[in-house]
Amino acid sequence: MKKLNELLAPVQTVEIIGSDDKMISGLTSDSRQVTEGTLFVAVPGVSVDGHRFIPMAVEKGATAVVCQQLPEDLSTHVTYIVVPSSALALGYLASQWWDNPSRKLHLVGVTGTNGKTTTATLIYEMARLLGHKVGLLSTVCNYVDDTAYPTDHTTPDPLTINELLHRMVEAGCEYAAMEVSSHAADQQRIAGLRFEGGIFTNLTRDHLDYHKTFEAYLAAKKKFFDLLPADAFALTNADDKVGDVMLQNTRARRFTYSLRSEADFRGRIVESRLDGTLLSLNGHEVELLFTGKFNAYNLTAVYGACILLGWNHDNVLREMSRLVPVAGRFQAFHSPKGYTAIVDYAHTPDAVVNVLNAIREVIGRQGEIITVVGAGGNRDKGKRPIMAREAAARSERLILTSDNPRFEEPEEILRDMEEGLDEEARTRTLHITDRRQAIRTAATLASKGSVILIAGKGHEDYQEIKGVKHHFDDREVVREIIASESASGR
């Protein structure tokens, strides 16, 4: 139970109708969760406007309502709080409800198109290796110290975020790492949070089904840095074309990392293999269990964040060598036939390019690359032909297959992808809608020294078809194939 006027303390209000001197028993933006004494926040959504459900919330016992527009009929026993933005208000209310947990943690946010999950997860892992209690909010899973909580979104809603941060505080966590998606920044899901640091990885085409333009997508990412406080740090990729843009209006202390130019934190690949990289970090060489330039960027960012958090330099370098790749991110499986299968979450053109370039850098022109890739349904259609074209340009063979078709027909998605292929590329491309069969076909085609890239789903253990999630895991399929090869003595 909390006093309404205490909850409203950090919230900008336009008008309050009714008493703010009342006790609130619960806080929600979902009218289905309203009970007696609840504060209901009516948030305009992408497809549904929460203002439609104010009467239902009042009928179920809401004692106060936060809204942008007043309903036609006002109840005399309900307090109505009019605000400029309900989404913004919800973030601050959620923080107040859970006693502002972000202010009791060293919270680091990571944003960008690619590398968010790896960078945030490795900061979490580094904290644990260095003996700290820490939490993680990520695409793959949320963690409160070592307790896992499943996740459905890259960045949860404000109430879930603050509840998880509160659990971290209760569990004695000192630090927290968090992925910050463009959707979350645009929809004010991080409003009210206090970040000690922000990291920018890179920006390439993605989520244009939501943002509509690249400029709007960039603005959503930049918004995160604009909101950082003056005593926080902002660490940006100096090699990305918009890296400096992220820092233009931030009040935070500014730092850069780079593989190509002078920066506060400089990484350099000394040697690269399929099972690891020798990386120089500010002149200190570290053997790491990661492959590819994109991972070198992620690890340089992690190194920078660890130093900016005040952790001992020598201990950081020592423990970085113990880090292991994140599930479904360049996860390698070795076949008795002599080929290597790599499962990776790459689901944007740039991510596919990064992974394929990393493979090519290691195996050179002698080895064959077979790429299995699809594209998600009900998402940005413009990237489909680009992904196919980029994959074909960097692979000897290409197999187009289904990803998460959602409510689209898989065949239509593959036809969109094929539009990016010229005649020569089409002669090297197979069209196999069934993803399991596509992976099996790649394994059949592979020979000693081949590398199969299975891109797009990574850690996901489902395929979403017509609104239903069916169990499917690329890694399980690869393990089954390799077990069968081992059993048959091939």
What descriptive keywords fit this protein?
alpha/beta, eleven-stranded mixed beta sheet, 490 residues, six-stranded mixed beta sheet, 23% strand, 16 helices
What class do helices, strands and sheet pairing give? alpha/beta
- Biggest sheet statistics: 11 strands, mixed
Spatially, the strands of the biggest sheet line up as 11-10-9-12-8-13-14-15-16-17-18
Rg:
24 Å
> How much helical structure, as a percent, in the residues?
25-40%
| Envelope shape | globular
Amount of beta strand: 15-25%
Briefly say what this structure is.
The protein has 490 residues and is of the alpha/beta class. The chain contains 16 helices and 26 strands.
Q: How does this model look, in words?
A:
The chain has 490 residues and is an alpha/beta fold. Helix content is 33%, strand content 23%. The protein is built from 16 helices and 26 strands. The strands form five sheets. The chain has an eleven-stranded mixed β-sheet with strand order 11-10-9-12-8-13-14-15-16-17-18, with helices on both faces. Strands 19-20-24-21-22-23 form a six-stranded mixed β-sheet, sandwiched between helices. Helix 3 (86-97) runs parallel beside helix 5. The N and C termini lie far apart (65 Å). 49% of the residues are buried.
